[in-house]
């Protein structure tokens, strides 16, 4: 049965219209890296497990622990009214609509505002990766107030994150999307830093330390290299933004 199993129900009453950062794997693994960093830096509590339709039936174990977990989990930080959707595996786009529908009722119950993260493939250069905001019509002014640029080209967000943004448009709920230029071949901690400091921070008014993210960039790339290869081998599963011109 599609459901979200809450493990720390005592936290629910302490959450007041929380923001949720989505961290599904995609181009450069920027969402995954950013989500993992938020969970670690704020020592977020394992709040719930996601058993929605579309989530592969696999069990995950972690270094230093024999406890098994589902691959998609929710973490909470009540001090910052922050939730993180963390995934250790890709979600197929055709399954993402089921996931979005399942999450939608839970979002409504907790009055959750989601921020969806995506990379757009750009070859690495000395320039700082560009970031821009997309979302439902009711959030456009908030991007401007946060100093987040509009897109400079026509494009689309594909993969599971694109499916969940599409669902938000269809049902008329609020959703933010942040798109950052990312390395198309390797995990990109620098792009994750940009999306945190120049996207998540101004939208949530939460100060997120990123020194460890920068200092450990080489370790992060190595640790997430296998997942990045999986994403490249299954390109249609990858959350990413793409210029629409390539289809014309």
Q: pLDDT below 50 for ≥5 consecutive residues: which ranges?
A: none
Q: Report on the biggest sheet.
A: 8 strands, mixed
Question: DSSP strand (E) fraction?
Answer: 15-25%
* Helicity range: 25-40%
Shape: globular
Q: If strands are numbered along the chain, what order do they take across the biggest sheet?
A: 1-3-6-7-2-8-11-9
Distance between the termini: 41 Å
Please tell me about this protein's structure.
The chain has 248 residues and is of the alpha/beta class. The chain has eight helices and twelve strands. The chain has helices at 30-41, 93-110, 140-145, 159-171, 189-204, 211-215, 217-223, 225-233, and strands spanning 4-6, 19-23, 45-50, 60-61, 68-69, 72-77, 82-87, 113-121, 131-135, 155-158, 176-182, 240-243. An eight-stranded mixed sheet has the order 1-3-6-7-2-8-11-9, with helices on both faces. β4 and β5 (68-69) form a beta hairpin. α1 (30-41) crosses α5 (189-204) and α2 (93-110) crosses α4. The longest helix is centred in the middle third of the chain and has 18 residues, at 93-110. The mean pLDDT is 87.
């Amino acid at each position: 049965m599609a459901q979200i199993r809450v493990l720390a129900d005592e936290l629910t009453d302490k959450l007041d219209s929380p923001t949720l950062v989505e961290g599904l794997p995609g181009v450069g693994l920027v969402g995954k890296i950013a989500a993992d960093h938020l969970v670690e830096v704020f020592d977020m509590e394992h709040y719930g497990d996601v058993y929605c339709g579309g989530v592969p039936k696999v069990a995950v174990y972690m270094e230093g622990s024999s406890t098994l977990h589902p691959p998609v989990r929710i973490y909470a930080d009540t001090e910052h009214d922050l939730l993180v959707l963390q995934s250790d595996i890709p979600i197929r786009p055709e399954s993402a609509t089921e996931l979005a529908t399942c999450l939608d009722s839970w979002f409504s119950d907790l009055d959750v505002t989601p921020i969806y993260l995506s990379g757009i493939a750009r070859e690495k250069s000395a320039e700082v990766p560009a970031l821009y905001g997309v979302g439902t019509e009711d959030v456009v002014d908030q991007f401007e107030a946060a100093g987040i640029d509009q897109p400079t080209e026509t494009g689309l967000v594909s993969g599971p994150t694109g499916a969940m943004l599409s669902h938000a448009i269809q049902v008329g709920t609020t959703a933010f999307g942040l798109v950052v230029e990312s390395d198309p071949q390797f995990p990109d901690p620098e792009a994750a830093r940009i999306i945190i400091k120049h996207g998540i921070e101004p939208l949530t008014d939460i100060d997120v330390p990123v020194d460890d993210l920068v200092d450990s960039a080489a370790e992060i790339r190595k640790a997430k290299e296998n997942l990045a290869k999986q994403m490249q081998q299954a390109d249609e599963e990858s959350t990413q933004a793409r210029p629409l011109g390539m289809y014309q």
